[in-house]
Amino acid sequence: MYPIDLSDKYGIVFGIANHRSIAWAIAQILHDAGANLAIAYQNERVKNGVARLVEDWEGDTPLIECDVSDDANVEAAFDTVGDRFGSLDIAVHSIAYADRNDLGGPFVDTGREGFRLALDISAYSLLPIARYGSALMQQNGGSIITLTFQAANRVFPGYNVMGTAKAALENEVRQLASDLGQQNIRVNAISAGPLDTLSSRVISHYRDMKRIHAERSPMRRNITTDEVAKAALFLCSDLSGGITGEILQHVDTGYNFR
Fold first, then answer.
1. For residue 146, what are the β-bridge partners?
2. Which residues constitute the domain of residue 183?
């Protein structure tokens, strides 16, 4: 158990694909802190794998299919959460996707459909999650967090359209924080260094990105998903009660200032 006690909190985590997912590390640490969680999975293809990850958890963990490209799907997911939990305190958005053909080569060659797809899944999806999630946070407020990357502000060769998506996502964090602040709902993001996930493996030059990060960062290593999860635990807890509209820059072993 962690010194942060979330046993009176209810949350939902979006974005678990497998055991390497950042969303899974966050879900684990929130669960270890006592949070009552629902897990949203994308489709039937990943359902069994997600179910195996949580099968050792005590209690009943709702598994909810949710395709975030469909607003009706997101609304239905939160309807299920409302039926099961009654209210919500935490929503974690750890979702990013782009066509692998748009994660390499010149950015100028990005097609309209590839651009639309990356922005829709990686950035816009936070809006319906915040819209329907905040409706369940009316009584006590809550915390909504998402994951971003330094490519929102700097050029990382090969990251391409995902950098544009992350820039949009960070702007959304500030606007949503402004919208929802009077309801005591906080919206923040964590800017994490490169991590080995299902999504990162298709990024052109990812291995170079990770190697350079380890060589240049003051701590001379890459970060871990556990370190990102601990930052998420803080932002989901009442310890961060006065923080909203922030991009936690950076959980990256100091690479950003070298």
1. 93, 189
2. 10-250
Is the full-model pTM beyond 0.85? yes
Catalytic residue among 10, 166, 206, 255: 166
Low-confidence residues of the chain: pLDDT under 70: 1-2, 195-206, 210, 212-213, 255, 258
Q: Would residue 2 count as lying in a domain? A: no
Task: Report the C-alpha gap between 220 and 255 in whole angstroms.
Answer: 9
Give Cα 136 to chain centroid, integer Å: 19
Q: Is 166 a catalytic residue?
A: yes
Orientation angle between helical segments 161-180 and 112-119, nearest 10 degrees: 40
In a domain, residue 196? The reply is yes
Residue 258 lies in a domain: no
Q: What are 127-142's pLDDT values in tens digits?
A: 999 999 999 998 889 9
Give the CATH number of the domain where residue 38 resides.
3.40.50.720
Report yes or no on 256 lying in a domain. Answer: no
How many domains, in total, are found in the chain?
Answer: 1
Taking the C-alpha atoms of 226, 229, 230 and 234 in order, what is their torsion angle to the nearest 10 degrees?
180
> Which entry of 97, 124, 132, 159 is annotated as an active-site residue?
159
132 in catalytic set = no
**DSSP of 143-186:** EEEEEE-GGGTS--TTTTHHHHHHHHHHHHHHHHHHHHGGGTEE
How far from chain centre, in Å, is Cα 99?
Answer: 19
Give, in degrees to the nearest 5, the angle at Cα 38 between 33 and 40: 125
